[in-house]
Amino acid sequence: MKPSVILYKALPDSLQQRLEDHFTVTRVNNLSPETVQQHADAFASAVGLLGSSEKVDTALLEKMPNLRATSTISVGYDNFDVEALNERKVLLMHTPTVLTETVADTLMALVLSSARRVVEVAERVKAGEWTKSIGPDWFGIDVHGKTLGIVGMGRIGLALAQRAHFGFNMPILYNARRQHKEAEERFNARHCDLDTILQEADFVCLILPLTDETHHLIGKAQFEKMKKSAIFINAGRGPVVDENALIEALQNGEIYAAGLDVFEQEPLPASSALLTLPNVVALPHIGSATHETRYNMAACAVENLIDALAGKVDKNCVNPQAKP
Ligand code: GLV
């Protein structure tokens, strides 16, 4: 008999088939307590779990005593209780490489659209407001040649630095725990502390995972240090930023604009003050959301689960120490 797994996200047919070639698959819509109760036997016997964007915590793990591996269709895994997984010797696999270039494209789109006010002026055109040659009230600010500050120099930061250096001739400052030789050699990036980035960068781009250490890393004091002309970009995780402080900084003109793909609460509530501000570009967490990349992430996650359950954890494993 094939081992049992729970699938909590729709997969393209070919990938669902690949999963079914290896496992008996129970497809559920989510991981809510109601769903778990409804499929209690399947959850109790499952050795694998595959999906994305749902909480995997102790309460769920208690219902899955046979679980040996989880595979998330994402690079981020802040929705997993990794300590609880480690205690139970459950492997956690993720998709760190396949989305790098696409997320860097999204970041560059946020940089360009917030600086040149692309969304705002396109909406004005659609509203029939383009009735004469435009004046300075429709102008934006230049991107090329401006200083880009990258907070979090991982794979995505590096791909953004490449675009900014070669495509836009931007000097690059970066903050990371360690110096990044490749970023320095290839893109002339300068390692500096967070305050220096806040004070000197024209664009402050956050690409950080959410951890206890990064929660509300950027708040009132940090916005106060930024230039009044600075544009703030976040495409990592929403709670890294104190969103109320961001709203205040935008309302008070402490910064020029913001380009945001992530929020403290997602989906962003329609009542959010961010949606009333013309100098905010708000995207619905589309970082990796292209047909090609989402397929590749799902394919990677399927292979990750197959590998993990076969004891192969040499790549894409968050906690190889949990291997029994
Ligand atoms: C997207 O936010 C991801 O973690 O893959």
From TrEMBL:
Transmembrane segments: none annotated. Coiled coil: none annotated. It is found in: Cytoplasm. The active site is at residues 237, 266, 285. Its EC number is 1.1.1.79, 1.1.1.81. Residues 5-319 form the D-isomer specific 2-hydroxyacid dehydrogenase catalytic domain. It is an enzyme of class 1 (oxidoreductase). GO terms for cellular component: cytosol; plasma membrane. It holds the Pfam family 2-Hacid_dh. It catalyses: glycolate + NADP(+) = glyoxylate + NADPH + H(+); (R)-glycerate + NAD(+) = 3-hydroxypyruvate + NADH + H(+); (R)-glycerate + NADP(+) = 3-hydroxypyruvate + NADPH + H(+). One of its GO terms (molecular function) is NAD binding. Residues 108-287 form the D-isomer specific 2-hydroxyacid dehydrogenase NAD-binding domain. Signal peptide: none annotated. Keywords: Cytoplasm, NAD, NADP, Oxidoreductase. Homodimer. Belongs to the D-isomer specific 2-hydroxyacid dehydrogenase family. GhrB subfamily. Catalyzes the NADPH-dependent reduction of glyoxylate and hydroxypyruvate into glycolate and glycerate, respectively. This is Glyoxylate/hydroxypyruvate reductase B. It comes from Silvania confinis.
